[in-house]
Design goal:
350 residues, binds alpha-D-mannopyranose, mainly beta
Amino acid sequence: MDLARRSTHNPILKPADIKPSTEGMQIECLLNPGVFRFENKIWLLLRVAERPEQEEGMISFPVLKDGSIEIKRFSKDDPDLDAGDPRIINYKGRDYLTTLSHLRLVCSNDGIHFHEPEGYPPILGEGSQETFGIEDCRVVNMKDGYHLSYTKVSPEGVGVGYLFTKDWKKFESRSMIFPPHNKDCAIFGDKINNRYYALHRPSSPEIGGNYIWLSESPDLLHWGNHKCIAITRENSWDSARLGAGAAPIRTSKGWLEIYHGATHDNRYCLGGLLLDINDPSRVIARSEQAIMEPIADYEKTGFFGNVIFTNGHLLDGDTLTIYYGASDEVICMAEFSVSEVLASLKKSRI
Ligand code: MAN
C-alpha cells in the first residue's frame, strides 16, 4: 500500500543545488528537513552532510574540534577499520560518522523551487556534544516563536538538542533535553491540559528496543512522566526501529503522528499512529501496512538506499505535504490526504 502522491518535480533538491559550508568540503547528502512557514514563504531547514573529496584507497571525514573542522583519515586496508555502512565507520572499537552534518535554511514561494536567502546563517555544531554534527531538526511554530528539536552527535553519545528562535537569525536555549541514546524528538504544537508534550526515541541495546515514548514538560526544557507508546512489531515494516516524524497533527479523531519504521535490513517506510486528543499516551490506532514505501528510483538508490525519512510537513485542510529525505541523499515532496491516512489505520493498543 502506498498512499503518497509524490511530486513530479522530485527530487526537489540535490547536493549540487547547495554550496558547501567551507572550502574543501563536498556535500554528499541533503536530507530530512524541518519545515515551517515564515514571512509568507515555505522554509526548509535542511540537514547538509559534508566531507572532503575522497581519495583512492582512503576514507576521510570531518569532525569539529574547538569550533573548527579537523579531518580524520584512515586507509581502507587498515585491519582496525570496519567500513561496512556508508553512514558510520568503526575504528579500533570506536564509531565515527562518515559525514559531518549542519542545518541550512532555504525558502520558496511555491513549495517546490527553493533558494538560499541572504542573511540567514547556517546552524553549525557547537561544543562538546555536537562534534560529530547536528541532524534531523523538527520545527514547531507556537505563539511565542519556533521551537527546534534536533539530534546532537558526539563521541559522548547521540541525544536531543533544543533551540528557540523568533527570527531565524538569533537562537536561544541550546541545551540537551533528552540524554543519549535518544533522537527523533517531535514536540507537540499545542499544550494539553496546560503541559507541553513530546515524542522521543530512546534506545535500549538489551531489554527494550527502539520504541516511541511520550513525555511531558512544564517549560519545554525539563521532561518527565515518560511512557512508552509504540513498540516494534516482528515480521513487519517497522520490526527493528520506530521514530516520530514532525509534530503530531490535530485531527477530529485524535493526534495523528506520521512516523518512520525500519526493518533489520534498514528499509525505512512511513506509517501513522493515532493518539487520544486529551491523553496522547493512549494509542487509538496504527498503520498495519506502511503508508509510504521506497518505490521510486530516487528512494531505492542513493547514498543509503531504500530510505524514506520525514521530519517536516505542512498542513492545508485535508492535505498534508511532507518533505522527506530519499535514500539519505536528496530532498523530495509528497502529499497525503489526512482522511485517507486516518481511514487506513487499524485499532491498536501499543
Ligand atoms: C537514522 C536517522 C536518519 C537517517 C536514517 C537512515 O536512523 O537518524 O538520519 O535518515 O537513519 O539512514
